[in-house]
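Appendix B. One record, verbatim.
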Amino acid sequence: MSNNAPALPPLIAIVGCDGSGKSTVSEALLEWVRGYGPAAAAHLGKQQGNTGRSLSNLPVIGGSLGGFIESKASTVRKSRTRNKSPDTFPAMVMYAFTLRRIRRFRRMQALRRKGMIIIADRYPQLDFPSAFDGPDMSVNAEGNRFVQWLAQREQKAFEWMTSHRPDLVIRLNVDLDTAFARKPDHRREALARNIEITPQLTFNGAHIVEIDANHPLAEVGAAAEAAVTTTLAARGYQRSQT
């Protein structure tokens, strides 16, 4: 982009562990922001967990399909901790989720170029590879050349996505008991890991507003609206009185 190119509309990312209220807050913020101008929502997570849980609810074959997705994701995660590349098929499954995420990110950028403010549920990160919203495969792991090629492409995709720094990151911080009470279908140990990592994410130096998500979601939403209002006002946006 040249120095004379017009600035894109604000990109506001809502991040936090599952159970912190991201989806609820994102939906409420979208309606709030539309009082300032055209706005659109974007979901930028991998969603293999949601996909697996949704498939598990299908009759007859649901349990097998949901378990298949989770087993492949688990295989990739375990391979990374041992600094070994996963087998070819699990790597292809996980890279398919990355391709879907890239399509969503490009669609989000296209909406910004059309003049829309973006409310993003989740945002890619590189601070903690293999953690939530980070790349799954390691470019330094031992393995076959095809899997290494997939890992390199995944890494480059995340480098490209994270180079687009949000104008505002709203970080919803939640404790484990609250998160698990809201998401009892999630693994408690996975929630604990994400809660530990969430405060350490930097999002390429983006401005981050911290919100205590243990409070009722109505209070969390009001705090998020206040943060967004400050950001939009700084960019010259005014809320419509109609």
